């Protein structure tokens, strides 16, 4: 069978490497894919405004102050950082510095990262299965709804995905020749991915290491040694920033938001590490399958990736990818150890299965958009398996697997589309009928149809991507804002756990308050508890606003003594109590102590219906 025999790169790929030539259709097809992806991701970019105002405020701060840029501060006064490392903010803030800061220039790098991820995925898959597989993989990634969401949003996930795909490309190059240099480059990309979203970046490492250990064409100990070099490269490329934060005097830099001891390592292994997996403070809430829980992944378990919360984000082609993976591993079971096709299957399956298992069973905070990290692996497995199985379509085994993939995709798309029954209700029937029809033709034997073969192949692919493509278009044409967003058509009023308008943002416009804060000339124009009001005021006024307690108001910074010292030095002008950025009841004792001290020491004034304390005018005694 075709997959069994394909222990070397396809003929077209070998020819490309030898002569630099490629089939004439490859270049225009790739250009069309990348152009279409760019148009899709750049269309009406910025229509969602500041997207996640938490990160947008940090990007703005990075355009105003270089120290804020370096550390990822939420405010230009450098009180506290966001609860993620700053790599993604670096890119967006540099774009704002060069082109001027606004919603479009902030999101422009994110969209370009999406185009880059599609291009690199194409190049990676092409190395093992040829350009047709690469184009299918790139198309599947571009049309994954959650990818369209995150590559048009300002969360760190866009840069994370790009860096992981780049690392996969480096690792495939390394596996082909056992090149230590390519392994080191993969480690470097993973290190910077850590500086984007911490330990999530390392979920792909088992798959990468397994592929190299199995298939690299050198002895075992040389393979182990090369991986050790890659690990060292990963540690160095991530560790330089950890060392910088640790060695920088704590009093001269912002507090590390989300940590308990002002440490980046504690943030990595605590709030963004063990707590995410094992649960704890800040974990998901709400009833299973409904309410706020919809934004926190739903119930943990083997079905989470297919559930009401996550299913329509990235799982459209997941059943087919799993079928293709099993078939690919079976048909390549007798290939030589260094077979590139099996190495690619091991790499992408390791990425998919490890990341998918962690997302499925973690008990801590998780959001549906995290599934964007699965999209490249799903897309790659689809491209590889469909292309290799299509080569063996003259045999019953590959035909049967292709038919199963087509029918399963249609049935699963029907189920997912049925979750939004009022949105394009006919689409689910069209996709189901078309996919089943294509499966039937494949079982009978598409190789017997002569010139109609190409039509059947194109039809099967269109029906396969039709449903996610429609959901992707709905994602692009809708607006999305706040810390908790979901792909697809609008599901009504999406409110955050704290009851604020939408999933983020201050509940009411208050021009008087904005004018008051914008007119202050102190280091921090105002201070408030949590990030929600702080971020909104910063974006509306350009002033620096201190978010006491960080994102949810639960961080132990600043202390009461520190805040009193800031006020005594005239560094904070106003205090606005009571609006947090997270679930109710999550404010720290520090935040409560500061609020109580301000209320006892300063008189309240009403500004457009909001209570404000002028910290330059204490109560007369």
From TrEMBL:
Coiled coil (UniProt feature): none
Name of the featured protein: Glycosyltransferase family 39 protein
Subcellular location: Cell membrane
UniProt entry keywords in alphabetical sequence: Cell membrane, Glycosyltransferase, Membrane, Transferase, Transmembrane, Transmembrane helix
The species this protein was found in: Mycobacterium deserti
Entry keyword annotation includes DNA damage: no
TM region positions: 25-44, 99-125, 132-151, 157-172, 201-220, 227-248, 314-331, 343-362, 368-386, 398-417, 423-445, 452-474
Predominant localisation class: membrane
Putative mannosyltransferase YkcA/B-like C-terminal domain mapped to chain residues: 521-600
Membrane topology: Multi-pass membrane protein
Ranges of residues in domain Glycosyltransferase RgtA/B/C/D-like: 83-238
Pfam families, per the entry: PMT_2, YkcB_C
């Amino acid at each position: 069978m075709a997959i069994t025999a394909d222990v070397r790169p396809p003929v077209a790929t070998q020819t490309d490497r030898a002569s630099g030539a490629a089939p004439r259709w490859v270049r225009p097809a790739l250009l069309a894919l990348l152009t279409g992806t760019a148009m899709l991701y750049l269309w009406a970019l910025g229509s969602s405004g500041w997207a996640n105002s938490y990160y947008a405020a940090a990007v703005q701060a990075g355009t105003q102050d270089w120290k804020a840029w370096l550390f990822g501060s939420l405010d230009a006064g450098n009180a506290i950082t966001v609860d993620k490392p700053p790599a993604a903010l670096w890119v967006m803030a540099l774009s704002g510095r060069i082109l001027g800061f606004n919603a479009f220039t902030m999101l422009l790098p994110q969209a370009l990262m999406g185009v880059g991820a599609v291009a690199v995925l194409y190049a990676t898959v092409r190395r093992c299965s040829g350009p047709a597989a690469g184009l299918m993989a790139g198309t599947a990634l571009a049309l994954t709804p959650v990818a369209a969401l995150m590559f048009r949003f300002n969360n760190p996930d866009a840069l994370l995905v790009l860096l992981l795909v780049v690392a996969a490309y480096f690792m495939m190059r390394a596996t082909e020749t056992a090149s230590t240099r390519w392994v080191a480059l993969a480690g470097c990309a993973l290190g910077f991915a850590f500086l984007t979203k911490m330990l999530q970046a390392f979920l792909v490492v088992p798959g990468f290491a397994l592929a190299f250990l199995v298939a690299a064409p050198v002895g075992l100990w040389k393979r182990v040694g090369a991986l050790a070099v890659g690990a060292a490269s990963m540690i160095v490329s991530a560790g330089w920033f950890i060392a910088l934060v640790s060695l920088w005097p704590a009093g001269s830099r912002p507090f590390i938001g989300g940590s308990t001891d002002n440490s980046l390592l504690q943030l990595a292994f605590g709030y963004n590490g063990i707590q995410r997996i094992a649960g704890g403070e800040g974990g998901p809430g709400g009833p299973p399958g409904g309410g706020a829980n919809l934004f926190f992944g739903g119930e943990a378990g083997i079905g989470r990736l297919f559930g009401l919360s996550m299913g329509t984000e990235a799982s459209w082609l997941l059943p087919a990818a799993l079928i293709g993976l099993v078939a690919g591993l079976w048909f390549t079971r007798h290939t030589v150890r260094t077979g590139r096709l099996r190495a690619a299957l091991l790499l992408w399956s390791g990425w998919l299965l490890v990341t998918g298992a962690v997302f499925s069973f973690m008990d801590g905070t998780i959001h549906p958009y995290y599934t964007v990290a699965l999209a490249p692996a799903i897309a790659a497995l689809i491209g590889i398996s469909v292309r290799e199985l299509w080569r063996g379509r003259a045999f019953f085994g590959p035909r049967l697997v292709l038919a199963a993939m087509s029918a399963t995709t249609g049935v699963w798309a029907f189920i997912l589309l049925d979750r939004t029954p009022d949105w394009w209700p006919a689409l689910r029937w069209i996709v189901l009928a078309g996919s089943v029809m294509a499966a039937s033709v494949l079982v009978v034997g598409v190789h017997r149809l002569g010139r109609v073969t190409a039509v059947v192949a194109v039809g099967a692919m269109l029906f396969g991507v039709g449903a996610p493509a429609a959901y992707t278009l709905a994602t692009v044409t809708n607006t999305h804002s706040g810390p908790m967003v979901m792909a697809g058509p609008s599901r009504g009023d999406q409110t955050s756990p704290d009851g604020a308008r939408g999933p983020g943002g201050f509940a009411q416009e208050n021009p008087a308050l904005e004018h008051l804060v914008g007119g202050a000339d102190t280091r921090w124009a105002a201070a408030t508890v949590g990030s929600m009001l702080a971020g909104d005021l910063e974006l509306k006024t350009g002033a620096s606003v201190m978010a006491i307690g960080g994102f949810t108001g639960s961080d132990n910074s600043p202390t009461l003594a520190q805040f009193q010292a800031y006020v005594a030095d005239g560094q904070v002008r106003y205090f606005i109590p009571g609006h947090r950025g997270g679930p109710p009841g999550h404010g720290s004792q520090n935040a409560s102590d500061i609020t109580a001290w301000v209320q006892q020491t300063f008189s309240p004034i009403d500004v457009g219906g909001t209570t404000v304390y002028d910290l330059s005018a204490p109560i007369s005694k």
